[in-house]
Structure prediction request, 476 residues.
Amino acid sequence: MKTLYKNPQGEPFELTNSQACLFDAIYRRLKNMLVILTYTQFGKSDVVAMAVLTRITTFPERWCIIGGTEDKAKIIMNKLIGHIFDNEYTKNKLTMKNHESMDRLRHERSRSRLTFNVGDGIGEVFILSGDSSKKGQDAGDTVVGHGAANILVDDAPLLPDTVNAKIVRMLGGFKDYFYGKIGNALNRNHFYRAFNSDRYSKVVIDYHLGIEEGRQTADFFEMAKEEMNDEILFNAFYGCIFPPQDASLGGVWIPLFTENDIEKAQDYEEIEHFGEKKLGVDVADAGEDHDTIIMRSNTYAEILYDNQVSDQMKLAGMVTAKSKENDAGRTYIDRSGVGAGVCSRLRQLGFPHRGINYGEKSPGSLYANKKAELFWELKRWLNQGGKLSKDSRWKQLTNIAYSINETNGKIQIMPKKIAINMGIKSPDIADGLAMTFYDRDKYAITEEDEQERFFKKKMRKKKLKTSEDYSLRMTK
Prediction:
């Protein structure tokens, strides 16, 4: 290795012990499932690139590198292209079309697929994007239809579980496969579960090893810790320690609900609705979005409808049916974007409802917008004893995160676009529940209350009649 590849200064690339362990785990495929967790700026992209390059110039295999975006996937590919020209062994095995230039490839590094002649076959590497934020398509559709026996996913924690599932499908046609996930200790999704699974072998390289191997000084990491001013964030990026369940994400966004909150809200033997039953309707946009109808009373909330295949006319009909079936009161619908179509259809049907725009201004001084206000009311309701149906889909609430705006000090909820880029699924069920807090709850009147109100009303009428009679007599 010392004579095979070079560093950016053109000198022999000398691997440290931890880098050599990482190289071996990939090049020798020591285990077929691997989690690579290193501190940030460890140099893993270079090591991974060299390991894959050595593998595909030695064995006739197909390797796929997947990133959260195409640009992310290109980071390792660009490193790999650069190392091709470090030695004659890899350079001579590169296959080029007649009209292509090695010099152009070397300088532009713009290829998304490369092949190498290894004598008894072809070694190949290509890149794909697992981008889940594209409009009009399901998350991870860019990987569907591809297959490879060897897959490496860079920045794996930033890809949602649905994309991970579609990547795993790519391995389905191969008995002998290799699946590696690379990332920092961030989201508690499939990457976190893989790290805690016995199926995966682990390569963990924290900043202590960086100091021990002389890659950085202890003073540098002390400086980084002071600059971050956030121990949890420092541990995630440098200590390879996943944040606690209720800790901030990326040092900015803090989960509004925890799994413990959900478990507490589902801890009951019997429960029934009390007070007015209100409906919250979230309309699917694209990709992973779902049409959802949530019903909540003063005491209890349940999921009445959840369908990924969006059909606005069907949803409008479902809203009217569920309202009648459950004797529900007020109905709230997200009217922004495609939701306007559902509101329009309900107006045609003469069905009373309230269109909500999460972005509208909140009358309260604490909240950046109506969305923040409604989710805070939802949190207050749960804290005061509100109960949820025993349904695993409520765990989606743990995807809702908030922060304090540094400019105006107001509470804001993580925007959908940021959540998607962090690999967090669209919280359709959570949104539907939050909408039911748009207006103050009304309590149902019991039969005894109704009778008391009736008699009081009759007494008021009697008094009014007596007063009127007396007035008339006085005028005579």
Remarks:
- The mean pLDDT is 83.
- The first strand starts at residue 33 and ends at 38.
